[in-house]
């Protein structure tokens, strides 16, 4: 998939100009760049939450997206399981949450879960959604090193052959993911 000549500004402040890049289908594509280079804005444009000033996104027309935002965006009074069931069936929700180490917290309201646990619920919800493209904005933030390694290992298994666009600043996370395509902004 090729995204061509994409530009976005906020008022007189350009975020990026005339960006063209390809997204490898069925693979993990990592967006890299310094803070403020437009990685989050690009994800928001790709899924239709924002409009570009210019550029062609026709390669993405008709695609379904699921996303992990920088903020978890969970329904805080709902349980971990109920948050995932918003996009999937109960069997899938339970299976994903158990695999992500949350088997003891399925029925607990997410407002009582730690930040790292909430992050895993958000990831489970994105993985459970019926989508063509998975958009992940700093999906492993807030996880301790041991949990992060385990969650990345599980993520690679669960997202296998799924077109993924992932934003991270953590080069260690990229190293743990192995063979990924880097897109520099």
Portion in strands: 15-25%
Q: Biggest sheet: strands side by side, in what order?
A: 5-6-7-3-8
- State the major sheet: 5 strands, parallel
Quick one: how many beta strands? 8
Helicity level: 25-40%
- Structural class assignment: alpha/beta
Distance between the amino and carboxyl termini: 17 Å
The helix tally amounts to: 6
Mean pLDDT rating: 95
- What characteristic shape results from the CA principal axes? globular
Radius of gyration: 16 Å
How do the helices and strands follow one another from N- to C-terminus? EEEHEEHHHEHEHE
Low-confidence stretches: none
Question: Care to describe what's here?
Answer:
This protein is an alpha/beta fold and 185 residues long. The chain has helices spanning 39-46, 80-85, 90-99, 115-128, 145-158, 171-177; strands spanning 2-10, 13-22, 28-32, 54-56, 65-68, 133-137, 163-167, 181-184. The strands form two sheets. A five-stranded parallel sheet has the order 5-6-7-3-8, with helices on both faces. A three-stranded antiparallel sheet has the order 2-1-4, with no helix packed on it. A hairpin with a 2-residue loop joins strand 1 and strand 2 (13-22). It is globular, with a radius of gyration of 16 Å. The model has no long low-confidence stretch (mean pLDDT 95).
């Amino acid at each position: 998939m090729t995204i061509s000549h994409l530009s976005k500004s906020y008022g007189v402040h350009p975020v990026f100009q005339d960006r063209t890049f390809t997204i490898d289908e069925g693979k993990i594509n990592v967006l890299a760049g310094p803070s403020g280079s437009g990685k989050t804005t690009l994800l928001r444009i790709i899924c239709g939450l924002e409009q570009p000033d210019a550029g062609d996104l026709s390669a993405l027309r008709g695609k379904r997206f699921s996303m992990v935002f920088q903020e978890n965006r969970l329904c805080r009074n709902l349980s971990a399981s109920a948050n995932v069931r918003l996009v999937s069936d109960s069997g899938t929700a339970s299976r994903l949450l158990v695999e992500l180490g949350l088997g003891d917290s399925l029925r607990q309201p997410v407002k009582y879960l730690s930040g790292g646990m909430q992050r895993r619920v958000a990831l489970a919800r994105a993985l459970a959604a019926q989508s063509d493209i998975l958009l992940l904005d700093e999906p492993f933030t807030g996880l301790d090193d041991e949990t992060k390694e385990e969650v990345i290992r599980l993520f690679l298994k669960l997202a296998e052959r799924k077109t993924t666009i992932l934003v991270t600043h953590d080069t260690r996370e990229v190293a743990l993911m192995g063979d990924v395509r880097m897109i520099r902004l």
